[in-house]
Amino acid sequence: MDLYSVGNLAQSIAGHDKNEIFVIIREEGEYVYLSDGKGRSLGKPKRKNKKHIQPIYYRNALLSEIKSDEDIKRVIQLFKRES
Q: pLDDT of the chain along its 83 residues, tens only?
């Protein structure tokens, strides 16, 4: 299983957003595009090098049905409650 696949969670380990949780929206080569539903929406995701994130294996039915920023915020909030 590819940890950098679309729909997985990731934690930033470098940069001004260090320790923030994101959802991987898209993968292109050595970069991934991340969204947190607040500052980084689906329409304007953050591009980040794969070296600067830690993929998180987290399975939730909501991850496969992400269609809006509200869905992203809900998934991240559920993950934070469970961990």
A: 688 888 899 999 999 999 999 999 999 999 999 999 999 999 999 999 999 999 998 888 888 888 999 999 999 999 999 97
Instruction: Return d(Cα 46, Cα 36) in angstroms, integer.
Output: 9
Size (the chain), residues: 83
H/E stretch holding 22 = strand 21-28
Structural domain boundaries enclosing 72: 9-82
Q: How many domains does the chain have?
A: 1
Nearest to residue 25, comparing CAs of 43, 39, 38? 43
Q: Is residue 37 part of a domain?
A: yes
Entry pTM: 0.91
Nearest by Cα to 63 from 17, 18, 10: 10
